[in-house]
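Q: I have 645 residues here and want to know how they pack in 3D. Can you give me a structure?
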Amino acid sequence: MEQLDPLSSLSPAELRLLIRQEDYRIRSTTGLANGYQQANVVILPSHLAKDFEAFCRSNPAPLPLLYGSQSGETSCPPLAKQADIRTDISQYCVYQEGRLVETVSSLQNYITQPSSRTASEQPVCQWSDMVCFYLGCSFGFEGRLKKAGVPVRNVEQGRNVSMYRTSVPCIPTGVFSCPLVVSMRPIPAGLLDTAVEVTHIKPQAHGAPLHIGDPALLGIQDLSRPDYGERVELQPGDVSVFWACGVTAIEAILSSKPSLAFSHSPGCMFLTDLPDSASSSPITSVELNPDLTPLCFLVSHNPLFYSLASKKAVAKIRQLETIIGEDPGERGIRALFLQDELLRSCLALSHSSSVAITTGFPTHYMHSPPDETDGPPGAIAIATMLLSLGKQVTLVTDRRALEMNQAIINEAVRTGVLKTTIPLVTFEDTGPDSALHFLCHHGDPSKPRYDHLVAIERSGRAEDGNYYNMRGVNIKHLVDPIDDLFIAAKDIAGITTTGIGDGGNELGMGKVKEKVKSLMPNGNLIACVVPADYAITAGVSNWGGYAVACGLYLLHTCPSHQRYLKKGLGLENASPQEQLQDWTANLPSVDKEESILSTLVHFGIRSGKTAHLAMEVDGLTFHPTHSDIITRLVEITVGSATCNP
Protein backbone atom coordinates (compact mmCIF):
# COMPACT_ATOMS: atom_id res chain seq x y z
CA MET A 1 0.00 0.00 0.00
CA GLU A 2 1.32 3.46 -0.86
CA GLN A 3 2.68 5.31 2.15
CA LEU A 4 1.65 8.92 2.80
CA ASP A 5 4.66 11.19 3.25
CA PRO A 6 4.39 14.71 4.73
CA LEU A 7 7.45 15.68 2.68
CA SER A 8 5.65 15.03 -0.58
CA SER A 9 3.81 18.37 -0.47
CA LEU A 10 6.95 20.49 -0.07
CA SER A 11 8.44 22.53 -2.90
CA PRO A 12 11.85 21.72 -4.38
CA ALA A 13 13.37 24.77 -2.67
CA GLU A 14 11.98 23.69 0.71
CA LEU A 15 13.24 20.18 0.21
CA ARG A 16 16.71 21.38 -0.83
CA LEU A 17 16.90 23.39 2.40
CA LEU A 18 16.05 20.29 4.45
CA ILE A 19 18.63 18.28 2.52
CA ARG A 20 21.25 20.98 3.17
CA GLN A 21 20.40 20.64 6.88
CA GLU A 22 20.88 16.86 6.51
CA ASP A 23 17.29 16.07 7.51
CA TYR A 24 17.27 12.35 8.29
CA ARG A 25 13.87 11.83 6.66
CA ILE A 26 15.16 12.46 3.15
CA ARG A 27 17.10 9.64 1.60
CA SER A 28 15.70 8.69 -1.79
CA THR A 29 13.89 11.47 -3.65
CA THR A 30 11.45 9.15 -5.40
CA GLY A 31 7.93 10.42 -4.76
CA LEU A 32 9.18 13.89 -3.75
CA ALA A 33 8.77 17.22 -5.56
CA ASN A 34 5.96 15.89 -7.71
CA GLY A 35 5.43 18.09 -10.73
CA TYR A 36 9.10 19.06 -10.94
CA GLN A 37 12.11 17.67 -12.75
CA GLN A 38 14.84 15.89 -10.84
CA ALA A 39 18.44 15.55 -11.98
CA ASN A 40 21.31 13.09 -11.88
CA VAL A 41 24.55 14.86 -11.09
CA VAL A 42 28.13 14.10 -12.13
CA ILE A 43 31.09 16.24 -11.03
CA LEU A 44 34.33 15.77 -12.97
CA PRO A 45 37.72 17.44 -13.38
CA SER A 46 37.47 20.11 -16.06
CA HIS A 47 39.88 18.37 -18.46
CA LEU A 48 37.23 15.64 -18.89
CA ALA A 49 34.32 18.03 -19.44
CA LYS A 50 34.50 18.20 -23.24
CA ASP A 51 34.61 14.42 -23.60
CA PHE A 52 31.76 13.89 -21.16
CA GLU A 53 29.52 16.47 -22.83
CA ALA A 54 30.14 14.74 -26.18
CA PHE A 55 29.39 11.39 -24.51
CA CYS A 56 26.03 12.78 -23.37
CA ARG A 57 25.23 14.05 -26.87
CA SER A 58 26.02 10.63 -28.31
CA ASN A 59 23.81 8.83 -25.78
CA PRO A 60 20.83 11.16 -25.35
CA ALA A 61 18.36 8.74 -23.78
CA PRO A 62 20.39 7.79 -20.67
CA LEU A 63 22.21 11.13 -20.47
CA PRO A 64 19.80 13.98 -21.33
CA LEU A 65 21.91 17.02 -20.49
CA LEU A 66 19.96 19.70 -18.63
CA TYR A 67 22.89 21.91 -17.73
CA GLY A 68 26.67 21.87 -17.72
CA SER A 69 28.28 24.28 -15.31
CA GLN A 70 31.29 26.49 -15.72
CA SER A 71 34.43 25.35 -13.94
CA GLY A 72 34.08 26.04 -10.24
CA GLU A 73 30.38 26.97 -10.44
CA THR A 74 28.39 25.76 -7.41
CA SER A 75 24.99 27.03 -8.53
CA CYS A 76 22.85 26.17 -11.54
CA PRO A 77 20.70 29.24 -12.29
CA PRO A 78 18.75 27.70 -15.21
CA LEU A 79 17.59 24.82 -12.99
CA ALA A 80 17.21 26.16 -9.44
CA LYS A 81 17.55 29.37 -7.43
CA GLN A 82 19.90 29.66 -4.47
CA ALA A 83 21.16 26.11 -4.89
CA ASP A 84 24.56 24.82 -3.86
CA ILE A 85 25.52 21.55 -5.49
CA ARG A 86 28.05 20.82 -2.73
CA THR A 87 25.31 20.43 -0.09
CA ASP A 88 21.93 20.05 -1.81
CA ILE A 89 21.94 16.31 -2.49
CA SER A 90 21.07 13.95 0.36
CA GLN A 91 23.84 11.51 -0.46
CA TYR A 92 26.88 11.77 -2.72
CA CYS A 93 29.22 9.09 -4.03
CA VAL A 94 32.95 9.70 -3.99
CA TYR A 95 35.19 7.97 -6.56
CA GLN A 96 38.95 7.66 -6.69
CA GLU A 97 40.63 6.15 -9.75
CA GLY A 98 37.34 4.61 -10.84
CA ARG A 99 36.48 3.08 -7.46
CA LEU A 100 33.60 4.05 -5.18
CA VAL A 101 35.36 4.86 -1.89
CA GLU A 102 32.52 6.26 0.22
CA THR A 103 29.17 8.00 0.36
CA VAL A 104 28.79 11.34 2.13
CA SER A 105 26.04 13.85 2.88
CA SER A 106 28.14 16.87 1.88
CA LEU A 107 31.14 17.56 -0.32
CA GLN A 108 32.52 20.31 1.91
CA ASN A 109 35.28 18.11 3.32
CA TYR A 110 36.53 17.35 -0.20
CA ILE A 111 36.88 20.97 -1.23
CA THR A 112 39.80 23.24 -0.52
CA GLN A 113 41.46 26.35 -1.84
CA PRO A 114 45.02 26.12 -3.15
CA SER A 115 46.39 28.04 -0.14
CA SER A 116 44.79 25.69 2.39
CA ARG A 117 45.83 22.32 0.94
CA THR A 118 47.19 19.89 3.53
CA ALA A 119 48.96 16.57 3.50
CA SER A 120 45.84 14.87 4.79
CA GLU A 121 45.16 11.30 3.58
CA GLN A 122 41.69 12.31 2.32
CA PRO A 123 41.98 13.60 -1.26
CA VAL A 124 40.73 17.10 -1.83
CA CYS A 125 39.94 18.99 -5.01
CA GLN A 126 40.29 22.55 -6.08
CA TRP A 127 36.63 23.32 -6.81
CA SER A 128 37.61 25.84 -9.46
CA ASP A 129 38.84 22.86 -11.51
CA MET A 130 35.57 20.87 -11.25
CA VAL A 131 32.63 20.90 -13.67
CA CYS A 132 29.09 19.77 -12.77
CA PHE A 133 26.75 18.03 -15.20
CA TYR A 134 23.02 17.88 -14.47
CA LEU A 135 21.18 15.11 -16.31
CA GLY A 136 17.45 14.45 -16.55
CA CYS A 137 15.90 11.79 -14.31
CA SER A 138 12.89 9.50 -14.69
CA PHE A 139 11.63 10.51 -11.24
CA GLY A 140 10.50 13.64 -13.09
CA PHE A 141 7.74 11.74 -14.90
CA GLU A 142 6.47 9.60 -12.01
CA GLY A 143 3.93 12.23 -11.01
CA ARG A 144 2.66 12.35 -14.56
CA LEU A 145 2.30 8.59 -14.66
CA LYS A 146 0.30 8.64 -11.46
CA LYS A 147 -1.94 11.44 -12.73
CA ALA A 148 -2.62 9.39 -15.89
CA GLY A 149 -3.76 6.45 -13.76
CA VAL A 150 -0.59 4.40 -14.12
CA PRO A 151 0.52 2.92 -10.77
CA VAL A 152 4.09 3.74 -9.76
CA ARG A 153 5.00 0.56 -7.92
CA ASN A 154 8.25 1.80 -6.36
CA VAL A 155 6.39 4.73 -4.77
CA GLU A 156 3.53 2.47 -3.68
CA GLN A 157 6.01 0.12 -2.04
CA GLY A 158 8.04 2.94 -0.46
CA ARG A 159 11.20 1.85 -2.25
CA ASN A 160 13.85 3.34 -4.48
CA VAL A 161 13.42 2.42 -8.14
CA SER A 162 15.24 -0.70 -9.38
CA MET A 163 18.23 0.01 -11.65
CA TYR A 164 20.22 -2.50 -13.67
CA ARG A 165 23.47 -2.62 -15.60
CA THR A 166 22.75 -4.05 -19.07
CA SER A 167 24.82 -5.81 -21.72
CA VAL A 168 24.09 -2.94 -24.13
CA PRO A 169 27.17 -0.75 -24.72
CA CYS A 170 26.80 3.01 -24.93
CA ILE A 171 28.36 4.82 -27.89
CA PRO A 172 31.94 5.48 -26.73
CA THR A 173 33.26 9.04 -26.88
CA GLY A 174 36.74 10.14 -25.84
CA VAL A 175 37.73 8.45 -22.59
CA PHE A 176 34.14 7.48 -21.78
CA SER A 177 32.65 4.07 -22.58
CA CYS A 178 30.35 1.99 -20.42
CA PRO A 179 27.24 -0.21 -20.44
CA LEU A 180 23.78 1.31 -20.53
CA VAL A 181 21.98 1.39 -17.17
CA VAL A 182 18.17 1.18 -17.09
CA SER A 183 15.49 1.70 -14.47
CA MET A 184 12.57 -0.72 -14.29
CA ARG A 185 8.98 0.04 -13.38
CA PRO A 186 6.27 -2.63 -13.42
CA ILE A 187 3.35 -1.44 -15.55
CA PRO A 188 -0.02 -3.21 -15.98
CA ALA A 189 -0.20 -4.60 -19.52
CA GLY A 190 -3.38 -2.66 -20.25
CA LEU A 191 -1.67 0.65 -19.44
CA LEU A 192 1.47 0.25 -21.54
CA ASP A 193 0.30 2.68 -24.22
CA THR A 194 -0.52 5.26 -21.55
CA ALA A 195 2.89 4.89 -19.89
CA VAL A 196 4.63 5.19 -23.25
CA GLU A 197 2.67 8.28 -24.29
CA VAL A 198 3.14 10.06 -20.94
CA THR A 199 6.90 9.53 -20.91
CA HIS A 200 7.49 10.04 -24.64
CA ILE A 201 6.83 13.77 -24.29
CA LYS A 202 9.52 14.00 -21.58
CA PRO A 203 12.82 13.47 -23.43
CA GLN A 204 14.60 15.44 -20.69
CA ALA A 205 13.47 12.74 -18.24
CA HIS A 206 14.71 9.90 -20.50
CA GLY A 207 11.61 9.86 -22.71
CA ALA A 208 9.74 6.73 -23.75
CA PRO A 209 10.86 3.26 -22.61
CA LEU A 210 13.80 1.56 -24.33
CA HIS A 211 12.64 -2.00 -23.69
CA ILE A 212 9.39 -3.66 -22.66
CA GLY A 213 9.36 -7.32 -21.72
CA ASP A 214 11.89 -10.00 -20.84
CA PRO A 215 14.85 -8.49 -18.94
CA ALA A 216 17.17 -11.21 -20.27
CA LEU A 217 17.07 -9.50 -23.68
CA LEU A 218 19.00 -6.66 -22.02
CA GLY A 219 21.39 -9.07 -20.33
CA ILE A 220 19.61 -8.74 -16.97
CA GLN A 221 19.48 -12.21 -15.44
CA ASP A 222 17.70 -11.59 -12.14
CA LEU A 223 15.20 -8.78 -11.54
CA SER A 224 15.27 -9.47 -7.81
CA ARG A 225 18.90 -8.31 -7.63
CA PRO A 226 19.16 -4.75 -8.98
CA ASP A 227 22.65 -3.29 -9.38
CA TYR A 228 21.40 0.00 -7.95
CA GLY A 229 18.34 0.97 -5.93
CA GLU A 230 15.95 -1.55 -4.41
CA ARG A 231 13.91 -4.50 -5.55
CA VAL A 232 10.41 -3.52 -6.68
CA GLU A 233 7.76 -6.24 -6.80
CA LEU A 234 5.67 -6.88 -9.90
CA GLN A 235 1.96 -7.35 -9.32
CA PRO A 236 -0.21 -9.84 -11.28
CA GLY A 237 -0.67 -8.56 -14.81
CA ASP A 238 2.37 -6.27 -14.69
CA VAL A 239 4.99 -6.11 -17.41
CA SER A 240 8.60 -5.07 -16.81
CA VAL A 241 9.19 -1.72 -18.51
CA PHE A 242 12.69 -0.31 -18.78
CA TRP A 243 13.71 3.31 -19.21
CA ALA A 244 17.18 4.67 -19.84
CA CYS A 245 18.76 5.75 -16.56
CA GLY A 246 21.17 8.53 -15.64
CA VAL A 247 23.09 6.13 -13.43
CA THR A 248 24.78 5.31 -16.74
CA ALA A 249 26.91 8.36 -15.87
CA ILE A 250 28.18 6.56 -12.77
CA GLU A 251 29.24 3.62 -14.91
CA ALA A 252 31.08 6.12 -17.12
CA ILE A 253 33.00 7.37 -14.08
CA LEU A 254 33.88 3.83 -13.05
CA SER A 255 35.22 2.97 -16.50
CA SER A 256 37.13 6.21 -17.17
CA LYS A 257 38.84 6.19 -13.74
CA PRO A 258 39.34 9.90 -13.01
CA SER A 259 41.60 10.59 -10.02
CA LEU A 260 38.65 12.11 -8.15
CA ALA A 261 34.99 12.48 -9.12
CA PHE A 262 31.59 12.78 -7.46
CA SER A 263 28.01 11.89 -8.29
CA HIS A 264 24.63 11.71 -6.64
CA SER A 265 23.93 8.40 -4.94
CA PRO A 266 21.45 6.45 -7.10
CA GLY A 267 17.94 7.48 -6.09
CA CYS A 268 19.15 10.61 -4.28
CA MET A 269 18.62 13.22 -6.95
CA PHE A 270 19.08 16.96 -7.21
CA LEU A 271 15.65 18.63 -7.07
CA THR A 272 15.20 21.37 -9.66
CA ASP A 273 12.66 24.18 -9.80
CA LEU A 274 11.71 23.24 -13.37
CA PRO A 275 8.10 22.09 -13.76
CA ASP A 276 7.78 18.71 -15.45
CA SER A 277 5.39 20.08 -18.09
CA ALA A 278 6.44 19.53 -21.67
CA SER A 279 6.70 23.29 -22.23
CA SER A 280 9.41 23.63 -19.58
CA SER A 281 12.00 21.76 -21.65
CA PRO A 282 13.58 22.54 -25.03
CA ILE A 283 11.58 19.86 -26.84
CA THR A 284 11.78 19.78 -30.60
CA SER A 285 8.83 19.66 -32.97
CA VAL A 286 9.51 15.94 -33.48
CA GLU A 287 8.70 15.17 -29.85
CA LEU A 288 5.65 17.45 -29.84
CA ASN A 289 4.15 16.11 -33.08
CA PRO A 290 1.24 13.91 -31.97
CA ASP A 291 1.69 11.75 -35.09
CA LEU A 292 5.05 10.66 -33.66
CA THR A 293 3.61 9.46 -30.35
CA PRO A 294 4.65 5.81 -30.05
CA LEU A 295 2.16 2.98 -29.80
CA CYS A 296 3.02 -0.30 -28.08
CA PHE A 297 2.53 -3.74 -29.68
CA LEU A 298 3.13 -7.24 -28.36
CA VAL A 299 5.61 -8.89 -30.72
CA SER A 300 6.57 -12.12 -28.94
CA HIS A 301 5.34 -14.26 -26.05
CA ASN A 302 8.53 -16.33 -25.81
CA PRO A 303 10.47 -14.34 -24.83
CA LEU A 304 7.95 -11.67 -23.83
CA PHE A 305 8.71 -8.65 -25.97
CA TYR A 306 6.87 -5.50 -27.04
CA SER A 307 7.94 -2.96 -29.64
CA LEU A 308 7.07 0.67 -30.38
CA ALA A 309 6.18 2.56 -33.55
CA SER A 310 4.73 6.00 -34.11
CA LYS A 311 1.05 6.56 -34.76
CA LYS A 312 1.94 7.78 -38.24
CA ALA A 313 4.02 4.73 -39.17
CA VAL A 314 1.32 2.43 -37.80
CA ALA A 315 -1.35 4.20 -39.86
CA LYS A 316 0.77 3.84 -43.02
CA ILE A 317 1.36 0.11 -42.47
CA ARG A 318 -2.37 -0.36 -41.91
CA GLN A 319 -2.95 1.33 -45.27
CA LEU A 320 -0.56 -1.18 -46.85
CA GLU A 321 -2.49 -3.99 -45.18
CA THR A 322 -5.76 -2.70 -46.64
CA ILE A 323 -4.34 -2.52 -50.17
CA ILE A 324 -2.95 -6.06 -50.19
CA GLY A 325 -6.30 -7.32 -48.88
CA GLU A 326 -7.98 -6.38 -52.14
CA ASP A 327 -9.31 -9.45 -53.93
CA PRO A 328 -9.59 -8.90 -57.70
CA GLY A 329 -9.46 -12.65 -58.23
CA GLU A 330 -12.56 -13.03 -56.00
CA ARG A 331 -11.05 -15.83 -53.90
CA GLY A 332 -12.75 -14.71 -50.70
CA ILE A 333 -9.46 -13.98 -48.95
CA ARG A 334 -10.92 -11.11 -46.88
CA ALA A 335 -12.64 -13.73 -44.73
CA LEU A 336 -9.23 -14.81 -43.39
CA PHE A 337 -8.00 -11.30 -42.53
CA LEU A 338 -6.52 -10.60 -39.09
CA GLN A 339 -5.89 -6.96 -38.13
CA ASP A 340 -2.27 -5.84 -37.69
CA GLU A 341 -0.62 -9.14 -38.63
CA LEU A 342 1.46 -7.20 -41.17
CA LEU A 343 2.44 -4.61 -38.58
CA ARG A 344 3.45 -7.12 -35.92
CA SER A 345 5.39 -9.23 -38.39
CA CYS A 346 7.28 -6.16 -39.62
CA LEU A 347 8.07 -5.13 -36.04
CA ALA A 348 9.44 -8.59 -35.27
CA LEU A 349 11.48 -8.61 -38.49
CA SER A 350 12.83 -5.16 -37.68
CA HIS A 351 14.27 -6.53 -34.43
CA SER A 352 15.63 -9.66 -36.12
CA SER A 353 19.21 -10.28 -37.18
CA SER A 354 18.99 -13.56 -39.15
CA VAL A 355 15.95 -14.49 -41.25
CA ALA A 356 15.16 -17.69 -43.16
CA ILE A 357 12.64 -17.34 -46.00
CA THR A 358 10.92 -20.21 -47.78
CA THR A 359 8.62 -20.26 -50.79
CA GLY A 360 7.49 -22.66 -53.50
CA PHE A 361 4.07 -24.06 -54.33
CA PRO A 362 4.21 -26.86 -56.94
CA THR A 363 0.56 -26.56 -57.88
CA HIS A 364 1.17 -27.57 -61.52
CA TYR A 365 2.11 -31.18 -60.81
CA MET A 366 1.62 -32.07 -64.47
CA HIS A 367 4.25 -29.58 -65.67
CA SER A 368 7.99 -29.31 -65.23
CA PRO A 369 8.79 -27.27 -63.29
CA PRO A 370 5.56 -27.55 -61.28
CA ASP A 371 5.99 -24.22 -59.47
CA GLU A 372 3.90 -21.07 -59.83
CA THR A 373 4.81 -17.42 -60.26
CA ASP A 374 3.31 -16.41 -56.91
CA GLY A 375 5.81 -16.57 -54.03
CA PRO A 376 9.35 -16.11 -55.39
CA PRO A 377 8.93 -12.42 -56.30
CA GLY A 378 7.54 -11.64 -52.85
CA ALA A 379 10.29 -13.65 -51.16
CA ILE A 380 12.97 -11.77 -53.10
CA ALA A 381 11.34 -8.41 -52.26
CA ILE A 382 11.49 -9.23 -48.53
CA ALA A 383 15.05 -10.52 -48.81
CA THR A 384 16.20 -7.43 -50.69
CA MET A 385 14.92 -5.04 -48.03
CA LEU A 386 16.25 -7.18 -45.16
CA LEU A 387 19.70 -7.21 -46.76
CA SER A 388 19.55 -3.44 -47.18
CA LEU A 389 18.80 -3.13 -43.46
CA GLY A 390 21.84 -5.22 -42.58
CA LYS A 391 20.10 -8.51 -41.76
CA GLN A 392 21.39 -11.97 -42.63
CA VAL A 393 19.06 -13.77 -45.03
CA THR A 394 18.86 -17.44 -46.03
CA LEU A 395 16.46 -18.98 -48.55
CA VAL A 396 15.14 -22.50 -47.88
CA THR A 397 13.87 -24.53 -50.82
CA ASP A 398 12.93 -28.04 -51.91
CA ARG A 399 15.72 -30.35 -53.08
CA ARG A 400 13.99 -30.83 -56.42
CA ALA A 401 14.06 -27.05 -57.05
CA LEU A 402 17.54 -26.26 -55.72
CA GLU A 403 19.31 -25.89 -59.05
CA MET A 404 16.50 -23.85 -60.62
CA ASN A 405 16.19 -21.48 -57.65
CA GLN A 406 19.94 -20.93 -57.56
CA ALA A 407 19.81 -19.94 -61.23
CA ILE A 408 16.90 -17.56 -60.49
CA ILE A 409 18.88 -15.93 -57.65
CA ASN A 410 21.92 -15.55 -59.90
CA GLU A 411 19.81 -13.91 -62.58
CA ALA A 412 18.20 -11.59 -60.01
CA VAL A 413 21.66 -10.46 -58.91
CA ARG A 414 22.79 -10.00 -62.52
CA THR A 415 19.78 -7.82 -63.36
CA GLY A 416 20.07 -5.78 -60.15
CA VAL A 417 16.84 -7.03 -58.56
CA LEU A 418 18.92 -8.49 -55.72
CA LYS A 419 21.84 -6.46 -54.38
CA THR A 420 23.84 -9.60 -53.56
CA THR A 421 23.48 -13.36 -53.70
CA ILE A 422 21.67 -15.14 -50.88
CA PRO A 423 22.58 -18.53 -49.37
CA LEU A 424 20.18 -21.20 -50.64
CA VAL A 425 19.72 -24.33 -48.53
CA THR A 426 17.47 -27.37 -48.28
CA PHE A 427 15.99 -29.18 -45.31
CA GLU A 428 15.68 -32.96 -45.02
CA ASP A 429 13.97 -34.99 -42.32
CA THR A 430 16.76 -37.34 -41.22
CA GLY A 431 15.50 -37.98 -37.70
CA PRO A 432 13.48 -36.61 -34.79
CA ASP A 433 15.90 -33.73 -34.12
CA SER A 434 16.45 -32.69 -37.73
CA ALA A 435 14.51 -29.45 -37.39
CA LEU A 436 16.20 -28.55 -34.11
CA HIS A 437 19.65 -29.02 -35.61
CA PHE A 438 18.68 -27.01 -38.68
CA LEU A 439 17.34 -24.11 -36.62
CA CYS A 440 19.93 -24.06 -33.81
CA HIS A 441 23.70 -24.27 -33.62
CA HIS A 442 24.66 -27.79 -32.51
CA GLY A 443 20.97 -28.48 -31.86
CA ASP A 444 21.09 -26.23 -28.79
CA PRO A 445 17.74 -24.39 -28.40
CA SER A 446 19.49 -21.61 -26.51
CA LYS A 447 21.55 -20.85 -29.64
CA PRO A 448 19.11 -20.32 -32.53
CA ARG A 449 20.65 -19.84 -35.97
CA TYR A 450 17.66 -17.76 -37.08
CA ASP A 451 15.36 -15.46 -35.14
CA HIS A 452 12.60 -15.26 -37.75
CA LEU A 453 11.17 -17.71 -40.29
CA VAL A 454 9.06 -16.42 -43.18
CA ALA A 455 6.95 -18.61 -45.48
CA ILE A 456 5.37 -16.90 -48.47
CA GLU A 457 3.11 -18.89 -50.80
CA ARG A 458 4.65 -22.10 -49.49
CA SER A 459 2.70 -25.39 -49.62
CA GLY A 460 1.34 -26.09 -46.15
CA ARG A 461 0.66 -29.42 -44.49
CA ALA A 462 -3.02 -30.37 -44.17
CA GLU A 463 -4.68 -32.25 -41.31
CA ASP A 464 -4.11 -35.63 -42.97
CA GLY A 465 -0.39 -34.95 -43.45
CA ASN A 466 -0.69 -34.30 -47.17
CA TYR A 467 -0.24 -31.11 -49.19
CA TYR A 468 -3.01 -29.91 -51.49
CA ASN A 469 -3.41 -27.28 -54.18
CA MET A 470 -6.63 -25.24 -54.26
CA ARG A 471 -8.30 -27.87 -56.48
CA GLY A 472 -7.73 -30.50 -53.80
CA VAL A 473 -4.99 -32.41 -55.64
CA ASN A 474 -2.38 -34.00 -53.36
CA ILE A 475 1.12 -32.74 -54.26
CA LYS A 476 3.00 -34.18 -51.27
CA HIS A 477 5.53 -35.96 -53.50
CA LEU A 478 6.82 -32.56 -54.64
CA VAL A 479 7.14 -30.93 -51.19
CA ASP A 480 9.93 -31.26 -48.61
CA PRO A 481 8.84 -31.13 -44.92
CA ILE A 482 9.84 -27.50 -44.28
CA ASP A 483 6.69 -27.27 -42.13
CA ASP A 484 8.68 -29.14 -39.47
CA LEU A 485 10.82 -26.03 -39.01
CA PHE A 486 7.78 -23.93 -38.13
CA ILE A 487 6.50 -26.62 -35.76
CA ALA A 488 9.87 -26.88 -34.01
CA ALA A 489 10.24 -23.09 -33.80
CA LYS A 490 7.18 -22.94 -31.52
CA ASP A 491 9.26 -24.48 -28.73
CA ILE A 492 12.42 -22.45 -29.29
CA ALA A 493 12.56 -19.14 -27.47
CA GLY A 494 13.58 -16.30 -29.73
CA ILE A 495 12.32 -17.60 -33.09
CA THR A 496 9.26 -15.83 -34.51
CA THR A 497 7.39 -17.07 -37.58
CA THR A 498 5.38 -15.40 -40.34
CA GLY A 499 3.20 -17.04 -42.97
CA ILE A 500 1.92 -15.18 -46.05
CA GLY A 501 -0.88 -16.71 -48.08
CA ASP A 502 -3.89 -16.07 -50.28
CA GLY A 503 -5.96 -19.25 -50.01
CA GLY A 504 -5.49 -20.94 -46.65
CA ASN A 505 -3.45 -23.92 -47.85
CA GLU A 506 -0.12 -22.14 -47.38
CA LEU A 507 2.40 -22.74 -44.60
CA GLY A 508 1.54 -20.56 -41.61
CA MET A 509 -2.17 -20.29 -42.39
CA GLY A 510 -2.82 -22.84 -39.65
CA LYS A 511 -3.41 -19.78 -37.46
CA VAL A 512 -6.72 -19.25 -39.31
CA LYS A 513 -7.45 -22.91 -40.16
CA GLU A 514 -10.97 -22.89 -38.74
CA LYS A 515 -11.89 -19.97 -41.00
CA VAL A 516 -10.29 -21.73 -43.96
CA LYS A 517 -12.24 -24.93 -43.27
CA SER A 518 -15.57 -23.15 -43.02
CA LEU A 519 -15.20 -20.37 -45.57
CA MET A 520 -12.80 -21.41 -48.36
CA PRO A 521 -13.52 -23.85 -51.23
CA ASN A 522 -12.35 -27.38 -50.30
CA GLY A 523 -11.40 -25.86 -46.95
CA ASN A 524 -11.84 -29.01 -44.89
CA LEU A 525 -9.40 -30.87 -47.11
CA ILE A 526 -6.80 -28.27 -48.09
CA ALA A 527 -6.50 -26.13 -44.93
CA CYS A 528 -2.95 -25.92 -43.62
CA VAL A 529 -2.81 -26.87 -39.94
CA VAL A 530 0.70 -25.55 -39.25
CA PRO A 531 0.40 -22.06 -37.76
CA ALA A 532 2.75 -19.10 -37.82
CA ASP A 533 2.90 -16.44 -35.14
CA TYR A 534 1.69 -13.98 -37.79
CA ALA A 535 -0.58 -14.91 -40.70
CA ILE A 536 -0.59 -12.20 -43.38
CA THR A 537 -3.36 -12.68 -45.90
CA ALA A 538 -3.36 -10.98 -49.29
CA GLY A 539 -5.25 -11.06 -52.57
CA VAL A 540 -1.99 -12.41 -54.05
CA SER A 541 0.79 -13.62 -51.79
CA ASN A 542 3.45 -11.62 -53.63
CA TRP A 543 1.62 -8.49 -52.52
CA GLY A 544 2.15 -9.54 -48.92
CA GLY A 545 5.89 -9.76 -49.60
CA TYR A 546 5.93 -6.30 -51.15
CA ALA A 547 4.01 -4.93 -48.15
CA VAL A 548 6.49 -6.46 -45.70
CA ALA A 549 9.36 -4.75 -47.55
CA CYS A 550 7.48 -1.44 -47.48
CA GLY A 551 6.54 -1.87 -43.82
CA LEU A 552 10.18 -2.44 -42.88
CA TYR A 553 11.12 0.75 -44.72
CA LEU A 554 8.45 2.69 -42.81
CA LEU A 555 9.71 1.39 -39.47
CA HIS A 556 13.31 2.21 -40.26
CA THR A 557 12.36 5.78 -41.18
CA CYS A 558 10.25 6.14 -38.02
CA PRO A 559 12.14 8.05 -35.28
CA SER A 560 10.06 6.49 -32.50
CA HIS A 561 10.83 2.95 -33.66
CA GLN A 562 14.46 3.68 -34.44
CA ARG A 563 15.01 5.13 -30.98
CA TYR A 564 13.54 1.97 -29.45
CA LEU A 565 15.56 -0.25 -31.77
CA LYS A 566 18.81 1.54 -30.87
CA LYS A 567 17.98 1.81 -27.14
CA GLY A 568 18.16 5.60 -27.38
CA LEU A 569 21.87 5.47 -28.18
CA GLY A 570 23.60 7.35 -30.97
CA LEU A 571 22.92 10.82 -32.28
CA GLU A 572 19.22 11.55 -32.71
CA ASN A 573 19.61 12.74 -36.29
CA ALA A 574 17.62 11.18 -39.11
CA SER A 575 19.17 8.30 -41.03
CA PRO A 576 22.11 9.39 -43.22
CA GLN A 577 21.03 10.38 -46.72
CA GLU A 578 23.09 7.62 -48.36
CA GLN A 579 21.43 5.01 -46.15
CA LEU A 580 17.97 6.36 -46.90
CA GLN A 581 18.74 6.29 -50.61
CA ASP A 582 19.85 2.66 -50.35
CA TRP A 583 16.68 1.65 -48.53
CA THR A 584 14.57 3.47 -51.11
CA ALA A 585 16.44 1.81 -53.98
CA ASN A 586 15.73 -1.60 -52.44
CA LEU A 587 11.98 -1.14 -52.20
CA PRO A 588 9.85 -3.10 -54.68
CA SER A 589 9.33 -1.30 -57.99
CA VAL A 590 7.33 -2.01 -61.10
CA ASP A 591 10.52 -2.41 -63.15
CA LYS A 592 12.17 -4.84 -60.71
CA GLU A 593 9.05 -6.95 -60.21
CA GLU A 594 8.42 -7.11 -63.95
CA SER A 595 12.05 -8.22 -64.38
CA ILE A 596 11.85 -11.03 -61.82
CA LEU A 597 8.51 -12.23 -63.22
CA SER A 598 10.07 -12.31 -66.68
CA THR A 599 12.92 -14.41 -65.26
CA LEU A 600 10.45 -16.90 -63.75
CA VAL A 601 8.61 -17.22 -67.06
CA HIS A 602 11.95 -17.77 -68.80
CA PHE A 603 12.54 -20.74 -66.48
CA GLY A 604 9.14 -22.20 -67.38
CA ILE A 605 7.30 -21.19 -64.20
CA ARG A 606 3.58 -20.69 -64.74
CA SER A 607 0.70 -18.60 -63.39
CA GLY A 608 -0.97 -20.35 -60.46
CA LYS A 609 -4.60 -20.21 -61.44
CA THR A 610 -4.41 -20.63 -65.22
CA ALA A 611 -1.08 -22.41 -65.78
CA HIS A 612 -0.34 -19.82 -68.47
CA LEU A 613 3.34 -19.39 -69.26
CA ALA A 614 2.88 -15.64 -69.39
CA MET A 615 3.44 -12.39 -67.49
CA GLU A 616 0.72 -13.07 -64.96
CA VAL A 617 0.32 -14.24 -61.37
CA ASP A 618 -2.75 -16.16 -60.17
CA GLY A 619 -4.48 -15.45 -63.48
CA LEU A 620 -4.00 -11.67 -63.13
CA THR A 621 -1.80 -9.98 -65.73
CA PHE A 622 1.20 -8.01 -64.47
CA HIS A 623 -0.12 -4.88 -66.21
CA PRO A 624 -2.33 -3.35 -65.00
CA THR A 625 -3.20 -5.38 -61.87
CA HIS A 626 0.13 -6.15 -60.19
CA SER A 627 1.89 -3.03 -61.41
CA ASP A 628 -0.93 -0.90 -59.96
CA ILE A 629 -0.68 -2.58 -56.53
CA ILE A 630 3.10 -2.09 -56.46
CA THR A 631 2.76 1.57 -57.44
CA ARG A 632 0.20 2.25 -54.71
CA LEU A 633 2.23 0.47 -52.02
CA VAL A 634 5.38 2.39 -52.87
CA GLU A 635 3.55 5.72 -53.09
CA ILE A 636 2.25 5.29 -49.54
CA THR A 637 5.71 4.27 -48.36
CA VAL A 638 8.06 6.76 -50.02
CA GLY A 639 5.54 9.58 -49.99
CA SER A 640 5.89 9.70 -46.19
CA ALA A 641 9.68 9.45 -46.03
CA THR A 642 10.28 13.18 -46.05
CA CYS A 643 7.91 13.46 -43.11
CA ASN A 644 9.84 10.91 -41.03
CA PRO A 645 6.81 8.73 -40.06
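Q: Anything worth noting?
A: Residues 113-120, 278-287, 640-645 have pLDDT under 50 and may be disordered. The chain has 20 helices and 24 strands.
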